[in-house]
Amino acid sequence: MTRSLFVSMARVQKDPSMKPGARGARKLAVTQVYPQVETEATDPCWAPPDADRPCPVLSLPAAEMAVFNQNARQERHYHKLATEIYVVIEGAMAIEVDGKIHRMQPGDAAIIAPGVPHEIKKQGLKFTSYVIEAHCGGPDDKYPA
Questions:
Q1: pLDDT at 94 over 90
Q2: The total number of structural domains that make up the chain
Q3: Coil vs helix vs strand at 6
Q4: Is 18 helix (H, G, I), strand (E, B) or coil?
Q5: Residues pairing with 77 in the sheet
Q6: Domain contains 40
Q7: Which end of the chain is more exposed for a tag (fewer CB within 10 A), N or C?
Q8: Domain range holding 124?
Q9: Is 56 a residue whose pLDDT tops 90?
């Protein structure tokens, strides 16, 4: 088990889950490891798993992180505990926060407090983004809005 994880953009771009037609998302840090699809990372330099292997993830008590693109399934939601931080790393992304749409470019970040409804909008944009959940309650802290 490693206590840190370094994620390179080059490896994210090679991840089969980020390719066209794939699910468009990959968890990197989790509050709860799902053994069927995830395993505790042993190497601090993250690499996408082979198709038949679980993804290496960093297990944290109250934070999660994922990378996703325009192919990821999105729905309007909010969190009761988590502060959610989106950081665009390539392309352009549109996000609706509390009824207002914001267009984001590489390097832009959105910090969304608990209780605020939000959704990534599919507007024909192509992007790659990180999403970080701080002080989160894990998979049980996501509610439809």
A1: yes
A2: 1
A3: strand
A4: helix
A5: 118, 144
A6: yes
A7: N
A8: 9-144
A9: yes
